[in-house]
Structure formats: structure tokens, C-alpha cells
Amino acid sequence: MSSDNEFLQEALDILDRAYHEFVDTRQYRLGNAVASAETYLDNHVYLIWPVAVYIEALADSLKFSGRYEKKLEVVFKAMKQYWHPSMGACCASLYFDGNDDVYYDDNAQLAIGLAVAGYYSGTSVHRRQYVNRATSIVELTIQRGWNSEKGGVAWHTRTTGPPWTNLNACSTTMAATAACRLAAVTNDPSRRKDMLVFAWKCILWVHDHLLNEHGLVCDGLSLENGHWKRDPIVFTYNTGGYILSMSLLNNFPTDNQMLPNIDRLPSMLEDAVKAALDTNGALYEQACNGPFKNWADNTFFSQILAEGLVAFSFTMPGSPLAEPAQQMVLDQARFVMKYIRDPKDGMYFRSLSLYKLNEQGVRIFNQLFHANKTLEPCAEDRESLKDVPLEKRPPVKTLLGNAGAARLLFCAAEIVLRRQSKGAPQDASAGAFMQRRPGASTASGDKLKKNCIIS
Hints:
Layout: H1 6-22, E1 23-24, E2 29-30, E3 39-40, E4 45-46, H2 48-61, H3 69-79, E5 83-84, E6 89-90, H4 104-120, H5 124-145, E7 167-168, H6 169-185, H7 189-209, E8 218-224, E9 227-234, H8 236-249, H9 265-276, H10 299-315, H11 322-340, H12 359-369, H13 399-421
Antiparallel strand pairs: 1-2, 3-4, 5-6, 7-8, 8-9
Helix pairs in contact: 1-13, 2-3, 2-4, 2-13, 4-5, 4-6, 5-6, 6-7, 6-8, 7-8, 8-9, 8-10, 10-11, 10-13, 11-13
């Protein structure tokens, strides 16, 4: 590993710290020592969402190293305890007979992580297991998640009305991303075609129904009194997922030629990136004064925007937006490493808004950005202590926050590595899909020769 890729080493360290902090290797469960967002039961077991993002982060690590293959296998085993055997997807909580609490967005993120793990895994046996589970999730989404009347992917498998039937940007863009990731790992041309057709359908639906006047992706549609109403709020991960899915689809220039109006893709992609890079827009913290503004979100949402910008920069390297997209990711990653990391334990907070954490965060934010903010505590960033006033609850480190931080830093690490390897025999600079590291399995199960990128 190059000594100047600080992002890579830190991302790997986050995963290791999170493993020791949140993974119970005896019971194969993930949880927190304290009650916090995304935990339930008296022993603070995690819901599937943070488990899915942690699997994504562990899968990301396989792009660079096989060091955490065993950790991924343990977490994969823990994931199976959420698995609904007849639906072929994960429940939000640990599975029990009668549990029908299955979200399409959570499962799409899980499918993305498993498909990426299958693509980069050095173990062919586990590769098949990862891909099979990812395939099951995406097939469920295609068959039951797509709204046959309005289009878009529903939030939940329940069909009893809002909020379950909401047509969300997150579920639709992540389903498209999962389909593209599966298309990359399959040897079956027919299945690849089905995945790409579905991904493009999702992308076009988001374009036609959820873009606001600034080119950013709104949160979704909900049915009210027989009419579909758009939720105008924007988050980094919705626009990020839209950019990411388009970038991945653009990486199939031969296969995607059969898609209708696919020639629109490059301009749609550049328009979305341009909107995402507008620091005067809603994705950025407008209380910041100066040349840099951090993303106005949290680690686990913003990491998807980072991933989308990186994928765009490598699938359209000739675009005038490619370099600014990479620089934005590097700048945001440096901000996260310097200010969102707690030096006391090396763990990361959830929010990127320092003034939501504690009084020290308020002071740092105001000094750094010449602002005048006061403490704005958020319940999700703090221990779930119902009888304690919100502002007195201590900030808490969570699996979701740390997995999101690791994924964001892996995005920056990928930029650094690809720049270093450009022109070398192991050149990984071309295309949205980073080249498999030597030692990983190919789709046929064969091993690539030579050593790993890092040990």
C-alpha cells in the first residue's frame, strides 16, 4: 500500500474498530453497548440497515485487500438471522415466523454489498453465496417492488398503503445500482440484460418524477387522497444514488445499446453531477462561510454521493466535471477524517454538522466557518435515553455512522490509488468498476494472478 494513501488505511482501521465494537462473534449478532438509533431489544441489537451498510463497507475493502474476508464471512452469517426464507430478502429485525417487515431500500443496499463482495471476493465458494443472496433480493424487487401503475420501487413489501407504498428515491436508485452490480458479476447474458433493462427503467423514472428545478433528486412520492404527492426534501444519498446508478450503467456500452433512448444517459449524468457540485445548493451546509462547505447530511447518506461522484469521474473521465467531482470527494473525506473522528477512540460520529454534536463541535464549526451557530442536538446522534433531556444525552458512535465514514473514505482512497496506478500494468483507472485486485476470483471462479494490492 502506498504510504500516502491516508484514506485507505483509515477506512480499514474504521472497519476493524467497528468489528470489535459492534460484532458479537459468539452469537453472530451486531449491536451496540448502549441504546441508540437503529437498535432495538434490551440488548441493543442492530436492525438490518446498519448491518447492510457495514457489509457494503467490508465489500469495499476487498477492492484493495483480502484482509477482511473472514470478517465479512462472520457478518454474512449474522445477516442470515434476518433472512425471510420465503421472501428471499432480509427483515428489518431478526427473523421470526410472521415477521413481514421487509424494506426494499434496506435490501437493495444489502444486495449492492453482496454483489460487490462477489465481484471482488478471493473465495469462490463465498462468492457464489453472496451473489445468490443478492440475486434473490433484486428478483424480489423486480417482481414485487416495482409499482405497475405509477412506476418506481416501493419503500416496503407491504401493500396496505402509505407509508409502506411510498415510491422513494432511495429504494428506486439503490435497486438500479444493485441491478448494475449484479450485471457486472454474472456470466449469463440474459440475466445481464434483465438487470440493465430494470436499472434503466428505474433511472428514467427518477428523472421523470423526482428531479426538482435545481436538478437534485427529491425524496419520493406518497399517495394522498388518491393523488401522488412529491416530497420536496433532498438528501445527498438520493442524488448520489441517481448519479451512481447512471455511472455504472454507462459502463456497459455494448450491452446497454438495446435500451431505449440510452443516448440520453451522458447528458443526464452530467446534469446531475453539475447539480450535486453546486455548493450553493441544498446538499451543502449553507452556514459555512468560505471556499469549502461540507455536505449537509451524515456519513451514511453522503457516502453514496461520494461513491456516485467517483464512479462518474471514471466512467466519463473526459468530462470537465470529472476532476471537480474527484476533488469534492477528497475535500469532504479530509473534512470527515479531521473533524468527525473522535480522537479519544478513533470512532466516527454520524452527523457531518459539528454544531449538532456538542458544545466543542459548535465552537469548532463557528471558528472554522466564521459562523454563529448554537447547539442543535439531534436524537439520532445521541444515546436513546428517554428520561434525559435531549441536549444532555451524550453523543453516540454507531455502526451506521462508522460504516458510512469508512465507505466515504474508501471512495477517496480509490481516487488516490487509481491516480497512482495510471499507466501501470495494474492500471485501475478506466471505467466505473475498479479493476479486481490480483488474487480475487473472476466470475468463472478463476483466480487472478499476482499478489493483492495491499497485504
